[in-house]
Amino acid sequence: MTHAQTERAALCDLLDRLGPGAPTLCEGWATEDLTAHLVLRERRLDAAPGIALPFLAGYTAAVQDRIKRRHPYPELVGLVRHGPPRWTPYGLVPRLDEIVNTVELFVHHEDVRRAQAGWEPRVIPRDLQEAFWGRLRGGARLFLRKAPVGVVLRRPDGAKTAGRMAEPAVVVTGEPSELLLFAFGRQAHARVTYDGDAAAIARLQEARLGP
């Protein structure tokens, strides 16, 4: 199995176990909302652009709400578990599912896991950590473009990548998986440490980050 397939299966198992109405880290969304979002982004390509484009967000929200109302929760989870239909780009372009969905499914898996009481970080395979680091090296400046201060991401082994060039700068240290969650706006739930000016750190922890 690819990492995307492994994350998909584990996320769906968790969604089935928790049921609808369980909290997530996505503001205003319970598990059924997050599940409907995943169905939309893979099966309603007409509505997917509104995930990133604010002027289309109203249409996307309306479609997501219809998906949630139209399908019972177990059916929604089943649609996510099945994966993208073959007629979508994910099915037609080799490795696109792995390239695009590994990070998406990991982040949303943690959105569900870390919203529950007593969570702890799980052990992430080293090759997946390296894949996350590659994604950060290529995308950190995009993910952190809204940061109010400079940001440098640092692994425990000392390797660094620049997120935003500005002063004052904050160095954020953690495993690539934790840095990825930080860069996707989950600062309060990412196991990272901060080095820098205290006021700059506080501003960064409260900022809205992410793609």
Automatic annotation (TrEMBL):
<protein>
    <submittedName>
        <fullName>TIGR03085 family protein</fullName>
    </submittedName>
</protein>
<dbReference type="InterPro" id="IPR017517">
    <property type="entry name" value="Maleyloyr_isom"/>
</dbReference>
<dbReference type="InterPro" id="IPR017519">
    <property type="entry name" value="CHP03085"/>
</dbReference>
<dbReference type="InterPro" id="IPR034660">
    <property type="entry name" value="DinB/YfiT-like"/>
</dbReference>
